[in-house]
From TrEMBL:
Pfam families: Amino_oxidase. Residues 19-496 form the Amine oxidase domain. SUPFAM superfamilies: FAD/NAD(P)-binding domain. This is Pyridine nucleotide-disulfide oxidoreductase domain-containing protein 2. It comes from Prauserella salsuginis. Probable oxidoreductase that may play a role as regulator of mitochondrial function. InterPro entries: Amino_oxidase, FAD/NAD-bd_sf. Interacts with COX5B; this interaction may contribute to localize PYROXD2 to the inner face of the inner mitochondrial membrane. It comes from the Bacteria.
Length: 530
């Protein structure tokens, strides 16, 4: 393999979205950037291919990107100039209940409120109140969520935008389970299952503390920006990030796994990736924290207390994903589901809570909730005319052996649920690609046991507790080594926050006040881990 250079200002480990965002921002600052990727192609969990049959584009991991569409980090990169275009289904999201009623979120607020009011008078008006609050606090909230911790200026703007009364109630919602919050706000079944299903995009069950804010946030994003997809496949988002980086002189080398981060005199000096690569200014690791700290660093460079904390790091749930090519659209009996790019299927509010509890307690759910993507509904280019490229994923407990037989039986359970609400579905299946936890990890080593969030989203692993008790920032106890992946604050989803925060920290450390910056970080780390 030919290596273009063995020295760079910054070495970025991992060419997933966070690594590419970090590399782009460093290139914007005039740095010479080299991105090293273990797999054969860039993108991490943002990749697509004609993986089942020609003409059908399959998103191999993630697919819908409301956080990317709303993220000020992604917006600041101007990726539309590098080929990125967003496509939308007629409706963003539908949740199909066991009795085949469906609740719908459309970017048309009147359509959403009419759907929810059909479940209970007043629920449409209650949803409208939440949307009005969202629009009032949207910009400072997103800035606060995605900025380095603590987000002092953004938090101040958020407090002013929310006001005292709504601010107190927002703070209460952050600690609430979505089951309780939804029952306080709505009378019917529609709005609660939408919020609970959205909370389950994380590893949090609807009865867990903190799930309300995730359910609310994704619901408001669905109403505001929809659940958009990149035109042509999720890989188009990666392609735009890659084009932007190479246009600024950045380099990406794939098929080159980093096995070690070199350190000397307490700072990161470079990496071993087949051969050594020297990093003049910084190493940014867009990989899960346990992989960085547990495999790439010598144990003696880390404080003993941090190593102990890392043993208590909690991964998010495992995942099973099934991809199909279909001869026609999914034949839903609920007409609302046919219009939505994303469909939630499986359970009322109580059923969703039981499913979440099963996963938490290590029980394979008898009634899983499926998150279903109808890609040609959102983007006609994903499949030949009249056909469909679809997928469904669900969370399952970690630590189980998903051999061929268990995976087949569970896939049958998923398809049986779909057939119940879309009679004739199985007859339309042309091809199928099943990705259990092991298959997901083999395709993307960052998805350990199919964990797609870089670590649990539970309250005990957020902010200054992510990935372990610390600063809640990209800085690590090793000078000039920065954690840039979803294990770092602000966590999972494709929004670029961890990568952007790591790039900002690296630039600050290399700047005129870098010595003072490093001393302050080291001092706090001594307090935390001494």
């Amino acid at each position: 393999m030919r290596y273009s250079s063995e020295t760079a200002d910054a070495v970025v480990i991992g060419a997933g979205p966070n690594g590419l965002v970090a590399a782009n921002l460093l290139a914007d600052a005039g740095w010479d950037v080299l991105v090293l990727e273990a797999t054969a192609t860039p993108g991490g969990a943002v990749r697509s291919a004609e993986a089942i049959e020609p003409g059908f584009v399959t998103d191999l991991f993630s697919a819908f990107y409301p956080m990317a569409a709303a993220s000020p980090v992604i917006a600041g990169l101007g990726l539309e100039s590098y080929g990125l275009a967003w496509r939308h289904a007629p409706a963003a999201l539908a949740h199909v209940l066991p009795d085949d009623r469906a609740a719908l979120v459309s970017r048309d607020l009147d359509e959403t409120t009419a759907s929810l009011a059909a479940f209970a008078p007043g629920d449409g008006a209650a949803w409208r109140e939440e949307v009005e609050l969202w629009h009032r606090i949207r910009e400072p909230l997103l800035e606060a969520l995605l900025s380095p911790f603590p987000p002092v200026r953004a938090a101040s703007r958020l407090a002013r935008a929310a006001g005292t009364a709504d601010g107190m109630r927002l703070a209460r919602m952050v600690a609430m389970p979505v089951t309780l919050w939804a029952r306080e706000r709505f009378r019917g079944a529609g709005a609660p299952v939408l919020a609970a299903g959205n909370a389950l995009h994380t590893d949090l069950g609807p009865a867990q503390a903190g799930s309300a804010v995730f359910g609310w946030l994704l619901s408001m994003l669905a109403q505001d920006v929809g659940f958009p997809v990149p035109d042509g496949g999720s890989g188009a988002l990666t392609a735009a990030l890659t084009r932007r980086l190479t246009a600024r002189g950045g380099r990406i080398e794939c098929g080159r796994p980093v096995t070690r981060v070199f350190t000397g005199r307490g700072r990161a000096m470079g990496v071993l990736a087949g051969t050594p690569v020297r990093a003049r200014r910084a190493v940014l690791a867009a990989v899960p924290a346990p992989l960085l700290y547990g495999r790439m660093l010598d144990e003696d460079v880390l404080p003993a207390r941090l190593r102990g904390d890392l043993r208590r790091f909690e991964w998010d749930a495992a995942t099973v994903k099934v991809n199909w090519t279909l001869s026609g659209p999914i034949p839903w009996t609920a007409p609302e589901a046919a219009r939505a790019g994303t469909v939630h299927l499986g359970g009322d509010l109580d059923g969703l809570a039981r499913y979440g509890l099963d996963v938490e307690l290590g029980t394979v759910p008898a009634d899983p909730m499926l998150v279903i993507g109808q890609m040609a509904v959102a983007d006609r280019s994903r499949a030949p005319e009249g056909s469909e490229s679809a997928w469904a994923y669900t969370h399952v407990p970690r630590g189980l052996v998903w051999d061929g037989d268990r995976l087949r039986r569970f896939t049958d359970r998923m398809e049986t649920l779909l057939e119940r609400h879309a009679p004739g579905f199985r007859a339309r299946v042309r091809g199928r690609l099943v990705q259990g936890p092991g298959e997901l990890e083999r395709a993307n080593p960052a998805l350990v046991e199919g964990a797609v969030g870089g670590g649990s989203s539970a309250m005990h692993q957020q902010l200054v507790f992510r990935p372990v008790p610390g600063l809640g920032r990209a800085d690590t106890p090793v000078d000039r080594l920065f954690l840039a992946g979803a294990s770092a604050h602000p966590g999972g989803a494709v929004h670029g926050g961890p990568g952007a925060n790591a790039a900002r920290a690296a630039v600050a450390r290399a700047g005129a006040s870098g010595g003072a910056y490093a001393a302050a970080v080291a001092g706090v780390h001594r307090l935390l881990y001494g």
